[in-house]
Structures are given as C-alpha cells and as structure tokens.
Design goal:
mainly alpha; elongated; Helix Hairpins; 2 domains
Length: 297
C-alpha cells in the first residue's frame, strides 16, 4: 500500500511524540523506588560527628603547628644570643676584663635560652600529640567511609535494578503488542508503533549501558555499531553489481575505475574485458549486463 508524503511525516511525528512522552514517563519511574540516601549511611557509622571533630582537630593542629614553628624560631634566636654571650664572657674571664655587666648579660641570655627551650618542648609535644590524634581520626574515618560507601553502593545497585525492572515492565509489553499488531495488520500505523517500541527499547539499552560502564560501555557500543555500519555498506553499497553499474554509468572501467570510451573493448589501465558479443543479435554489448541494450534479450 502506497502512502502520501504527509502521511509518512505524520507517522514520523507520531513516533517522535510518543517517544518523548515515554522517555519522560520512564524518568518519572526512577522516583517510584526509594532512592538510597548517602547521609543515612554517614549517620549510621557516625561519620558526620567524626567529620566535625576532624574539622576542629585540623584547626587546632594548624594553630599548634604555627606555635611550634614560632617556638622553634625563638629557640634558635635565643640559642644564638646565649652562645654569643657565653663566648664573650669566657673571653673576658680569660683576659681578666670580666665585668658584672657582662656576667649579668650572660646569665640573662642563658635564662632566656632555657625558657625558650622549655617553651619549644611544650609546643612540640602539644603539636605532636594533636597531630597523632588527627592521623588516628583520619584513619578511622577512612575505614568507616569505605564501609559506608560499600553499603551505599550495594543499596544503589538494588535501586537501579528495581528501576530497570519497572522500565522493562513498561517497554517490553508495548513492544510485544506492537509486534503482534504488525503481524496482523501491516500498515503505516503498526509500522510506526513497532518503530516507536523498538526505539524505546534501544533507549533503555543505551541508558543501562551508560549507567553501568558509562564511557567504556558507550565506546564498545559505538565500536560495535560502526562495525555493523561498515558491514552493511560493504554488503549493500559496495556489491560488485552496484559498483559495476555505478562505474559504467560514469564511463569508467568496472574493474579499476579508469576512464574509458564507448568504443574501448579492453581497459587500457588494467586490461579487463569491457565488451562481449550478444548470443542473440551478435552486437557488442558491455560485459556483465543482464539484458542486451540492442535486442533486449
């Protein structure tokens, strides 16, 4: 049965609109099963409270590290002054020029050095203790987050499986019904229905592949589709009969594609035989033609 162009356009629009509505409905189906909440698993393992504690410890660790660096710098400076004053006082003692003022400066430098040293030890101890607690907390958090992620991933996979089952329960019956209608009523309407249901299943397949392996899956699917396309082109477009007809219509050699003239009996490039004698009328006709252009036999 022949159909007008407007009927074909309307049938195509029918498929497009049905497909858009169905895809939107399939997306709505994703809200039917309860989607797992990652925060639930964080609370289950007490991760949120530990993260707050980690934040406080990190801030304290930063401040203590700054104090430790400052104490180390003060100790270095106090040690430099102390060593200088000690050497100055020793030289003065040996030369007999020691004064009470030099002695007091030396004792003051020694006292400042000892004070800076104890401050340094205190700052270092406080920083190392806090840093050790932070590392232990980070290790604990890493283990708990790994458990929470694994449990959430299992729950999310179950959720995705439920969604896929719901989508298939919607799409597969439509495809089966379309197939049965097409077998019974072969017209443009049933053809449109089978096209719509097939595209819907393809959409589900692509969605499942993308959500499962994403780029790798899409690459594999693209490679497979490309191979099929190449096979189809090779089979249909590059058939020897098609190549021969195309090259003959372009006045080219059917074997190598070299330009030829109507009176050539052989190809000047590859030597292929271009014409043969017709069994019925005896005229020279192009080789491999199904019917003679002179007698029609």
């Amino acid at each position: 049965m022949e159909y007008s162009r407007i009927e074909k356009i309307l049938a195509s629009l029918f498929v497009v609109f049905l497909l858009l509505a169905s895809i939107n409905f399939l997306r709505e189906l994703e809200n039917v099963p309860q989607r797992p909440n990652y925060e639930y698993y964080q609370e289950k393992y007490g991760i949120k409270a530990l993260l707050e504690n980690q934040s406080r410890l990190m801030e304290l660790d930063r401040k203590l590290f700054e104090m430790y660096q400052k104490a180390e710098s003060n100790l270095t400076e106090a040690e430099r002054v102390y060593l200088f004053k000690r050497e100055e006082y020793r030289v003065a003692l040996e030369s007999g020029n020691a004064t009470e003022e030099l002695k007091e400066e030396y004792l003051k430098a020694k006292e400042d050095y000892e004070k800076a040293y104890f401050q340094y030890l205190g700052a270092k101890s406080a920083y190392e203790e806090t840093h050790k607690k932070l590392e232990e907390l980070n290790s604990e958090l890493q283990g708990l987050m790994q458990k929470a992620n694994e449990e959430y991933r299992r729950a999310y996979n179950v959720y995705r499986l439920k969604v896929l089952i719901l989508k298939l329960l919607f799409a597969v019956p439509i495809f089966i019904a379309s197939l049965l209608l097409l077998r019974r009523y072969k017209n443009i309407y049933t053809s449109s229905l089978i096209a719509y249901s097939s595209l819907l299943l393809i959409y589900l397949l692509l969605s499942a592949i993308w959500s499962t392996v994403q780029l790798i899956g899409l690459s594999l699917f693209g490679a497979f589709a490309t191979l099929l396309a190449l096979y189809y082109l090779r089979r249909e477009y590059l058939k020897p009969e098609r190549v021969y007809k195309r090259r003959t219509a372009q006045n080219k050699c059917y074997n190598c594609g070299f330009p030829i003239k109507d009176d050539y009996l052989y190809c000047p490039n590859c030597g292929a035989k271009l014409k043969e004698k017709c069994e019925h009328c005896g005229a020279l006709r192009p080789i491999h033609l199904r019917f003679c252009p002179y007698c029609g036999q």
